[in-house]
Amino acid sequence: SLSDRLGGVFEKLRGRGALGEADVRTAMREVRVALLEADVALPVAKDFIARVTERAIGAEVTKSVTPGQQVVKIVSDELTTMLGGEQADLELAVTPPAVIMMVGLQGSGKTTTTAKIARRLKEKERKKVMMASLDVNRPAAQEQLRVLGEQVDVATLPIIEGQQPVDIAKRALQAAKLQGFDVLMLDTAGRLHVDQPLMSEMQAIGEIAAPAETLLVVDALTGQDAVNVASSFTEQVPLTGVVLTRMDGDARGGAALSMRAVTGRPIKFIGTGEKIDALEAFDPERVSGRILGMGDVVSLVEKAAEVVEAEEAEKIAKKFAKGQFDMNDLKQQLLQMQKMGGMGALMGMMPGMGKMKAQAEAAGADDSMLSRMIAIVNSMTPKERDKPQLLNAKRKIRIANGSGTTVQDVNKLLKMHKEMSTAMKKIKKMGGIKGMMKMLG
Ligand code: GDP
Ligand code: MG
């Protein structure tokens, strides 16, 4: 995957003293391969590499981070920029009804996405939404939208057989105005390929409806084709945003990276499944983190930063730096976990903890387990907390008795400590919590 490949690149940069031009160029060659493999369009990848290279060469390496981390930060910043910088909302602040026109090829997910957005506007923003299908090409297309409307409890324009798209649009506008709808969603027809009749139809509807938003719906799985489709539409229809569908499963994400560059418009949503609630706002920062394979670490650090006092973080950072992580630290961590909403929430976010979380869940672990674990640490002597390797069978029995648990529980805790130490070492590789926080600004 893109994140695996990039991870390998940065791994190689680790431990070097300064960010030399040769290092950067070598790394960028691999980043380029990684981008192309992920279906990023060639000109977009080239442009990206040029910008990162320029910023990376001669960049001062901050004391607390390694050159590799510095490059990760630069790549991550540029990825975020490339993905549109900030999250872009729908802009519907016009005299109602605000028209949202959905365009794209047949099968890209227009009709489904129309219903998904309508549902979202209704549920999250309490908007009164009407949907109308202008797809007279495909038999039963209008019926498909009507059924979806029933499913999400959103009004649809009554179907009149034989009416043409532009006339349906006029009728929809009138109905939405008269009946006081806030938003009118127009689901248009697609074609198998981009062609002139399709573009002309979109232009004609656009002139009638004067949409506040014209969203291009593209299938992320089609990779380079998605990019070509986007560039054709951009030339002929004034788009305001993009929706990338089928971002569930194993979409390689390259299409997302190319979209902004090709259309000059933000990705506003991603479709993540066939279900009607499988729609997410597109967050460039998060996606760039995910591409770099550090998204979860980023969330973890952000969440930790909210709760852990700066002083505490400093102390823990020092321990990480020395590669120490004793039972007292574990206890601190357990207490923090309690504060942060329990084990499951936290373990899911920690690097290398996914497997443990599954194990814990399989063993019927819950948050009462957290209290038991803290009790176990409390029953250890200061020496034992410093050096858990002292814990022989006899000591374990004593601790189990003292904490009202079993030797098995004590063993589980020791195992967890060991796995956590390993995970912590991973964080240490990235410069420790402090380094990571610095890196994240
Ligand atoms: P249209 O021809 O552009 O209107 O496309 P449709 O909305 O009819 O969707 C075509 C197919 O793609 C349907 O089977 C949808 O359920 C499916 N689909 C749409 N969006 C997504 C998505 O985000 N993920 C997945 N897995 N399927 C989707
Ligand atoms: Mg359709």
Automatic annotation (TrEMBL):
* Membrane disposition: Peripheral membrane protein
Q: Does the keyword Cytoplasm apply?
A: yes
Q: Which Pfam families match?
A: SRP54, SRP54_N, SRP_SPB
Protein's cellular compartments: Cell inner membrane; Cytoplasm
Q: What species is this protein from?
A: Pacificimonas aurantium
Primary role:
Involved in targeting and insertion of nascent membrane proteins into the cytoplasmic membrane. Binds to the hydrophobic signal sequence of the ribosome-nascent chain (RNC) as it emerges from the ribosomes. The SRP-RNC complex is then targeted to the cytoplasmic membrane where it interacts with the SRP receptor FtsY. Interaction with FtsY leads to the transfer of the RNC complex to the Sec translocase for insertion into the membrane, the hydrolysis of GTP by both Ffh and FtsY, and the dissociation of the SRP-FtsY complex into the individual components.
Protein known as: Signal recognition particle protein
CDD domains hit by this protein? SRP_G (cd18539)
- Domain comment text? Composed of three domains: the N-terminal N domain, which is responsible for interactions with the ribosome, the central G domain, which binds GTP, and the C-terminal M domain, which binds the RNA and the signal sequence of the RNC.
Its keywords, alphabetically, are: Cytoplasm, GTP-binding, Hydrolase, Nucleotide-binding, Ribonucleoprotein, RNA-binding, Signal recognition particle
The UniProt entry, under PROSITE patterns, shows: SRP54
Q: Which residues form the SRP54-type proteins GTP-binding domain?
A: 266-279
The family classification in the record reads: Belongs to the GTP-binding SRP family. SRP54 subfamily.
Q: Quaternary structure?
A: Part of the signal recognition particle protein translocation system, which is composed of SRP and FtsY. SRP is a ribonucleoprotein composed of Ffh and a 4.5S RNA molecule.
